[in-house]
Specification:
This protein is of the alpha/beta class and about 280 residues long. It is built from eleven helices and ten strands.
Length: about 280
Amino acid sequence: MPEKPRIKVPARAEREKVRSLIEGLGLNTVCKEAACPNIWECFQRHTATFMIMGDICTRNCRFCNVKTGRPAPLDPEEPARLASAIKELGLKYAVITCVTRDDLPDGGAEHFVKTIEAIRAVSPETKVEILTSDFAGNSFALEKVLKADPAVFNHNLETVRRLTPILRTKATYLRSLAVLNYAARMFPEIPVKSGIMVGCGESMEEVFETLRDLREAGCSILTVGQYLAPDEKCHPVEKYYSEAEFAEIKAYALELGFAGAACGPLVRSSYRAGEMAEKVYG
């Protein structure tokens, strides 16, 4: 019977340097806010997934550790501070994600654009992957961020069709597929990526169905990881998948035609994202 995966915590000095820089600039990372199991490994590698638009989300998904409530107004200085951190860290690849901001007319799309522009202004060699919300289905907002020409566009489907109403607040399975499909059709030069969690009560056939739906939507990069409940208030873990089961999922994904698939117990949507993009697209 597979057990909960063990998380390795590396040496302290390098990860503390990165954490101090990020906190000193008043930035948020999804690594910390979402209790990512890879936080120490990524910090030691001088990488992080930056979370813009605050640390309070307007949705309350049952798998997530990010705080829910009424967010503060957008900070106009945040893009410049984030760009400064990326330059100081010497990042060649940065992932920018966000809390969901249903309170904003464009869901924060313009703030994404300003962040990408700020990064390019001070660190033009840095490639930027964006991991966005569904923008409540607003195609104009989606078009706005895609026109900023990110290296990769990522939007997570999170789970199978049956469990979506249970785990995701306000989001829908078909809307997320539509977001991915819009990006793939309208901006074919930008690789489209998505990820799901397993261990929430889905069957393997439901996982395979989800992979087929993602591929048909135009998704070319896939991440599949073990769900780990951040606390007891979240949806419980129903199953821990074995390495063999993750290997089976990856083999099926590659058979479907995904250009790249990272599948494993501690895989998350932005884990080693730069390495994944480089491997798939050179």
